[in-house]
Structures are given as C-alpha cells and as structure tokens.
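Pasting as-is:
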Amino acid sequence: MRRRRIHLSAHLRAPQMTNTTPLKLTPEISALIAGALDTDNVLMLAAVDRDRKPLLSFRGSTAVFSETQLSFWARNAGGATLDAISQNPNVAFMYRSKSVPLLQFVGRARISDDPTERDRVYGLAHERERASDSERKGRAVIVDLDEVKGVLGRGTGGPIFCHMVRG
C-alpha cells in the first residue's frame, strides 16, 4: 500500500514563535498581571512537591516585583506551596484571559524573610489579598524569571507571539 504525503499550505501550518528577546517584562504584560485579580484571570502557579508530584494553586497576590521578577504573598506560611518551593525552587505561572490565549512564566522561586522585601511583596499584593492577611502572618516569595512565552493575542496577521529569555 502506498502512502500519500499530505502537504499543508502555508496558512494551515502552525505558526512559528517570533524571535527570542531578552527578558524584560513589558508594560502590557505588567498591566495584565496587575489587573489579573480584578478581571478574574488570576495566575496559576505550578510547583513540584517533595514527592515530585505537581502542585497547582491560584495566586491572587501575584505582582511584578521588577522587570525580571514576579512576587506573591503566601498567606499560609506553613502551606504545601512554600514547602514545595523550599524543596524545589523551579516554578511556572500561567496567565489566560479572553484576549490573551496563554502566557507562561518560568523561573526560580525563593522565600524571603528580609524585612524590606517582605514589606514590598506584601505592599505589591492586591488589596483583597492583603485584607485576607492583615496581620502579615504569611511569607514573601520572589520568582526570578528565566523565560516568558506564549501568545499575547491575535492580530490581523495571526497570533502575536511572545518569547523572552533571561540573558
């Protein structure tokens, strides 16, 4: 039996990701993160626990800490997420909305007990998240991003890709 080769026309092929650029969170991406809780598009955090099993949690307190870092306030200081991060710092966040099909943030998390960083992470968290831990019993987590990738939206020419990597 003879196999036939199927040739996809150019417009049916999966589009390729654009050129990789140095990692620096743009104002557009920063605004998506800042408005995530208000628009019901809370970022999902993926970590790996001590048994090497995936651990997923929504993080409404996620904020832009710097052009290359995200942060979040973990209200439960003894929770599974912090335990997982202390065992394995590799984490990922996912953002999705009606206009943004998928943005993935990959990096290395660290729990900070430095008073200045704790104050800043708490202050950057959404006010609803801060109100849930007004006594500041939680802990600050800072994520050094290594990569941001995904589809920022759709334009007239198709998907608008994003791919940034730490230099």
